[in-house]
Amino acid sequence: MTDSSLDSSHEIPAAAFRRSLANRHAHAAEAMRRVLSSGQLILGTEVSDFETEFAAFTGTQHAVGVASGTDALILALRALEIGPEDEVICVANGPVPTVAAIRAVGATPRFVDVDSGTLQLDVNLVEMALTTRTRCLLPVHLYGCPVDLDPLVSLAESHNLKLIEDCAQAHGARYGNRHVGTSAAIGCFSFYPTKNLAALGDAGACITNDPNLDQRLRELRMYGFRGRAIAEIDGMNSRLDELQAALLRPALAALPAALQQRSEHAAAYLSGLNSDLLRLPNVTARGTAAWHQFVIRSPNRDAIQRLLREDSILCGIHYAWPVHLMPAYKDPGDGAPSLPVTEQACDEVLSLPILPELTSDEISRVIDAVNRTALQQESHSR
Ligand SMILES: Cc1ncc(COP(=O)(O)O)c(C=O)c1O
Q1: For a pocket test of ligand 1, which of 66, 68, 70, 142 has the largest count of ligand atoms closer than 8 A to its C-beta?
Q2: Residues spanned by the domain of 88
Q3: Whose CA is nearest to atom 10 of ligand 1?
Q4: What is the 3-state secondary structure (H, E, C) of 181-201?
Q5: Cα separation of 198 and 195, whole Å?
Q6: Same domain as 230, residue 200
Q7: Given the CA of residue 71, which atom of ligand 1 is nearest to it?
Q8: Both 75 and 94 in a single domain?
Q9: Cα 325 to ligand 1 centroid, rounded to whole Å
Q10: What would the pLDDT profile of 71-120 be if each residue is shown by its tens digit?
Q11: Is 0.85 surpassed by the pTM of this model?
C-alpha cells in the first residue's frame, strides 16, 4: 500500500490518522526491535530516556511517564493530596477527562466561565468562585493556546491553592518564555494518538520541578512502591508502556518541525479567513500557541460544517456539549452554574483541519471553502 492510497486524494481530514500513521511505519518497526531486543518490557530505558528528553523539551527538571493524560491528572491531584473535601476550579468547555479526573479523586469540580475572546478560563472570575473548600486551580490550555497564567500563579500563592496545568493539548505552547506546565506544581500531558505529540495508543506524562513531587508521582504510578516491592503509600498501576515510550522518542524529535507546520497553517488561516463573518482564534497576550486545534466561531456553525463536509473538508467540534450540563456532572443540588460564554461557545465552535501533514494547497482550499460557505450562510440569514 502506498502512502497516497491511505487517504482519499480529495478529502481533507480533521484527524489524519491514516496520513500521519503512514509516516510512522519505519520508526514503529525500529522501536519494536529495540524493545524486544532489550528484553525490558516495563519501565526500561526507553521510558527513562523519554522522560529525560521530554523534561528537556519542556524545560523542567522531571518528567514521569504514565499510562494516559487522564491518569496524569489523577496522579497529580493525588500527589498534591486533593481529595473528597476539596473543590477544584476548572472549565466546562473542554473535554470530559479533566473533570473526570477531579471526580476520580473524590473532589468537586467548580466550573468557571471562559473569556469570550480566548475561550480560555476567565481569570477575572476565578477569585469570585473560590470558597472555603477550594484547594486547587486546574486550568486547561485548550486547543493548545495558553491560559493567562500569571494571574493564576498569584491567586494560587495568595490563597494557598495548588496549581495544576492540563497541557494535554498544548505540547510546544509557551507562556512568555516558559513552556506550559512549568508554572504549576505539576503539568499534565496526554500522548493520545490525536495529540500534537502522539503515541500509538494511550500514554501520558506529568512534569514538575519539585523532586519530592517527582518521587511521589513515581510511587503513585507503581502501587506506592518506594524502591522495593512494599507499598509505602496507596498507589495504582499507571506506568508509561515501554513500547509507547520507544514510539514517542522519534515523535518528540520530529515535534518542532510539526509545530512549525501547524503554526504556518494557523498564520495562513488568520490572514485568509474572513474575520467580518467569522470569529477567529485569539491567543492570550503573552502566549505562543501550539495550534492543536484552530477553532473558529459562527452562529451558522452547523450549516458551515455540513457544507464543508459536502466539499470533503472534515471539521471537528471541540466541544459541542458543555461538561457542566452532562448528566454525570450536573449538580443535582445547586442546579447547573450559569456559564453563558461557555454555552454559547459550544454552539458556535468549529475546528478547521490543521494537521502538520496538510499541504499549503489544502489549507488554501479550506480557506476558500470556509469563506464561501460563511458568506452563503450570512446571506441566507439576512
Ligand atoms: C485537555 C485534555 N485533558 C485530558 C485529556 C485526557 O487524556 P487521555 O485521553 O490521554 O486520557 C485530554 C485528551 O483527551 C485532553 O484533551
Answers
A1: 70
A2: 21-112+120-248
A3: 69
A4: CCCCCEEEEECCCCCCCCCCC
A5: 5
A6: yes
A7: 11
A8: yes
A9: 19
A10: 999 999 999 999 999 999 999 999 999 999 999 999 999 999 999 999 99
A11: yes
